[in-house]
Design a protein that fits this description.
Layout lengths: L10 H13 L1 E4 L5 H16 L4 E2 L1 E2 L6 E2 L7 E4 L6 H21 L3 E11 L5 E4 L9 E8 L12 E4 L5 E4 L6 E5 L5 E3 L6 E10 L6
Antiparallel strand pairs: 1-11, 2-5, 3-4, 5-6, 6-13, 7-12, 8-11, 8-13, 9-10, 9-12
Helix pairs in contact: 1-3, 2-3
The chain binds N-oxalylglycine and manganese (II) ion.
Length: 210
């Protein structure tokens, strides 16, 4: 397989940009191709089997800590050049970044992302993704890597939208959800099965002096 690319004016990306502009979030049930979804799931399981995933921390910097009562997922940050499937994912996200910059003038400069594995029963309580002391995260993006996910498996991403509206997203393989990181509180409900995803954040430049 070669690294996959998609032009930043692809209709799928333009639809996501329009949704973000209008509503502050977007859900695409058919985003990642099946083959790539399966390869990313295999990569996540391999890293897990090799002990590379670690319990995720809450917060950032010196005060971050592991708190399973808040979030029970295991994560590993990804970098380019580690696996072809990850590089394809990063290319797709870079095209989405360009599309958002062109359509929304967000000035997104980089993307950070990690694999996440929620063991059965694990959850992530209601939160927002932007840190109190660091407002660089602008847009959150989650892609799901699970085969044949059914509503009775649980594991929904529950989003708290404007006007008291709640919206649940099933973590079905190949789907993508994006939302404004500072504006959409959300939580991950416990599942009866292992739940795999890649979660990432598009960031603008910080205002700290260099
Ligand atoms: C997160 C998160 C949502 C999901 O990692 O911050 O909210 O559906 N993930 O996995
Ligand atoms: Mn989150």
């Amino acid at each position: 397989m070669r690294v996959m690319q998609i032009p930043s004016d692809h209709p799928l990306l333009l639809r996501i940009v329009d949704d973000l502009a209008e509503h502050g979030w977007s859900q695409q049930n058919i985003f990642l191709p099946l083959g790539l979804t399966q390869e990313l799931a295999a990569e996540c399981r391999k890293r897990s089997a090799e002990g590379e995933l670690a319990p995720a921390a809450v917060g950032r910097g010196p005060t971050s800590e592991i708190r399973e009562g808040i979030r029970g997922d295991h994560i590993q940050w990804i970098d380019p050049g580690q696996a072809l499937a990850c590089d394809s994912y990063l290319e797709l996200m870079d095209s989405l970044r360009e599309a958002m910059n062109r359509g929304l003038y967000l000035g997104l400069e980089d993307f950070e992302s990690h694999f996440a594995l929620y063991p059965p029963g694990a959850f992530y309580l209601k939160h927002v993704d932007r840190f109190r002391d660091d407002d660089r995260r602008m847009v959150s993006a989650v892609v799901y890597l699970n085969d044949a996910w059914l509503p009775e498996h649980g594991g929904q991403l529950r989003m708290y939208l404007a006007d008291g509206v709640e919206h649940d997203v099933l973590p079905a393989g190949g789907s993508l959800v994006v939302f404004l990181s500072g504006e959409v509180p959300h939580e991950v409900l416990p599942a009866t099965r292992e739940r795999l995803s890649l979660t990432g954040w598009f960031r603008r430049r910080g205002n700290e002096p260099f």
